[in-house]
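As described in the Methods, two query proteins were run sequentially through the folding procedure within a single session, without resetting any intermediate state between them. The first query and its resulting structure tokens are shown here.
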Amino acid sequence: MLPFRPALFLFPAGLLLCISCAEAPVKEKVIDTLIIAGKTYDIHTYTPEAFDHLPSSGPERLVDRNENIQYEDSSKAKRVDKTLVLKTVDGKEVILANTFAGEGMEDYTRYIYVGSMKTIACWYVDVYEYESYHGLLIDQRNGQQTEMWNKPRLSPDLKHFIVANLDLDAAFTPNGFQLWELTDDGPKKIWEREFEGWGPDDVRWVDNNTIAFVKTYHGTDGFDKHEFRKMKLF
């Protein structure tokens, strides 16, 4: 009987190197930082393909042309002529009436119902004023109203929302981010930050702690440029 000899396998050095490279974790490159409320946030690159696969997690506008419209729950939200009427759980009515007074339109206000955010028991309304706009989140339980720069984008765990607003030219509205916390007493703003030279065109949540956004700025050729970025908030 021949003595047992352990088998010896030889691999090309290039193959071993390839396997080693494939198993090594890919370290994301930090390309920028933001300092907000005394905290430094790292900014990473992101891809358009990955961004497009993320849910928007916010209210999407319904048809509302200030006509007599019955919404998805007409017993709670409806429009009568120029007035939006929202009925809360505790029986109160929130009355939002469009106004137009004066030749200069300084007293112009228009409320556009966007929809019900049932996961957080709120309605969202766009508010357009003379040369400006903002968002209005209304608690369906008690009618509490919270103003914000634009539409809220909810985190997957429904504990926070982020607001992005882009205004690079007119500067009639803020240009930047707002971060909010959802509490039992309503939304509480954690911080807000405005930017110069660029602004967030859209924002979505990657997970409970991370957002992805579109960085928009004016190119030297006169056309807007768009870059996709990712930032961990918590």
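Immediately afterward, the second query was submitted; its sequence and tokens are:
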Amino acid sequence: MTHSLEKFISSLEQLLFLTVSAFFALIPLFIWHPVTKFLRVVFFDLLGLRKKVVFKNLKIAFPEWTQVKRKKCAQKSFELFLLNMIEFLRCGFMPVWPGSTIENKELLESTQMQARERGTTTVGVVFHMSNWEAVGQTLWRHGFKNSTISKSAGSPFADRFLTFLRQRNGMGSMLISGAKGSVYRQILGCIADGRLIGFPMDQHRYGSPYIDFLGKPATTNESFVTIQQRQNLPVLLTYPVRTGLGKGKLVFEPFEVPVKKSTESKEEFSLRLLLEVNKRIADVVRKYPEQYFWLHNRWK
């Protein structure tokens, strides 16, 4: 395939992406909102899409809750998941949470300034809270270059679609591929360029250690520790919080990386750091349970 033909096909593909986004953007969010409730009734309540997984997860995380309370949380969480998707699909033309603010912006600025003085950058511990696509877009609108590690959506076409919309809104995407060391090389590029790094920490990863999360061990990505220690990256807990329809804020909280004890092995230190990460994420999830993404099978 010639270069000019590849470029032509790529342009047609991007036109298709924009057409899809335009369809969702033309319909106001206040109309989409009741649609999400209807879709929740059909797909979650009646057809049971991911229903067993959601209730299993909520029972693990909140064993003290009544079944009625779990049901309300599950239904609201499913509706918000659909709303998150619609907000993202619109972002070819309408940004996700266009008026979003940054809570503790001074903390982010000072942490990043100190990191740049040392020749490194800040890594944000991110997780599937609220509309996670708002993280990169909010940072970009406030003048912060950023990239987030992301898994494949399941097909090259879907990956290109997601990457296109993300890059259109100032968010870099470090896609995990089969090439060994590809993400690490991209991280080194982010450090050189001064880009903030988003590191997802609540995804199942085969071969990783099982660390307590909301009362039950779940695999937790140990490569985070390796990269953080090797590059001496300062860490901030980073998460979005929805405050209304099409509205939200991006929150940064300080995260003190523990000092490795002389008596600790590498493995012991790694487990201690990952346990602290999971504890901090769990605190946020308990604070905003309806906004967490309960549809994925966190405890495989």
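The radius of gyration is 20 Å. We note this only descriptively and draw no conclusion about the first query from it.
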